[in-house]
Amino acid sequence: MRDIDTSEIEEKLTGLIREAEYRLTPGCEKALKAARGEETCPYARFALDTALENAEISKEGVYPLCQDTGLAVVMLEIGRGVRFTGKPLSDAVNSGVRRAYSEGLRKSVCDPLTRKNTGDNTPAYIHTEIVEGDEVKITFLPKGFGSENMSKLYMLKPAQGTEGVIDAIVKTVEEAGSRPCPPVYVGVGIGSTFDGAAYLSKKALCRDVGTHSEREDVAAIEAEALKRINALGIGCQGFKGDTTAIGVACEVAPTHIAGLPVAVNIQCHCVRCAKGVV
């Protein structure tokens, strides 16, 4: 067994939040630059130039990438050889969020009914998995709600198959239009349960833009969905350009014989995610 004081988790997470809020993921930045180089619409080129300029300014660490600094989604892969000491793990995670968001980041978490702000961007939404090893892998995903509000969950019939999955992905992006600040990154969860598919779609967004599923059939879904989305012609910020999405990432898990859950989680062009290990 390896003892890990949860204060180490707090410290690492605080740093990851600082990293994610001020820097696009490498794959996202590369994809936006590629889209700019291929764009034929002058208005969309202007919007892509602005997005890339914004990213460069944000790297200085003064202004976050987006004014919506997001709801904190924290994913923990906990090695079964780990034994935690110190404060409860959830307390450590929320302390890390509280510390980082006190440094000039917008606090966006509120009660769903009274709308009263919690004041420190907590609670974080924590997902845990037990894996082999004696380390803790931490993934921080700040989820803005301009894109989150455009996300959807479908309970398809098994007979709808691959075409039904692709149709659901494309339909979600088409109906979202310009509202999630395209070009978007699309995370898709296929299978599991009503709630499990949604979690898979969040995990998919944590894959860097430009990566593909190791399963050929799943990679084919990603490629076809991306092709059809970009054929919609929505373009950057809705300016009718060539690139409406910079990527589609799918994660898959077994499901019940009677179901085909599909969750489509939209991320704006500002793809933010940071990962670390304790």
Question: What do you see in this structure?
Answer:
By secondary structure, the chain is of the alpha/beta class. It is built from eight helices and ten strands. The chain has a four-stranded mixed β-sheet, with helices on both faces. The protein has a four-stranded mixed β-sheet with strand order 6-9-7-8. A two-stranded parallel sheet has the order 1-3. The two termini are 14 Å apart.
Describe, in short, the structure shown.
Helices cover 38% and strands 25% of the residues. It is of the alpha/beta class and 278 residues long.
Provide key terms for this protein.
278 residues; alpha/beta; four-stranded mixed beta sheet; 10 strands; globular
Topology:
Blueprint: E1 2-5, H1 6-22, H2 26-38, H3 42-58, E2 71-79, E3 82-85, H4 89-101, E4 125-131, E5 136-143, H5 145-148, E6 152-156, H6 161-176, E7 184-192, H7 194-205, H8 216-230, E8 245-255, E9 260-267, E10 274-277
Parallel strand pairs: 1-3, 2-4, 7-8
Antiparallel strand pairs: 2-5, 5-10, 6-9, 7-9
Helix pairs in contact: 1-4, 2-3, 6-8
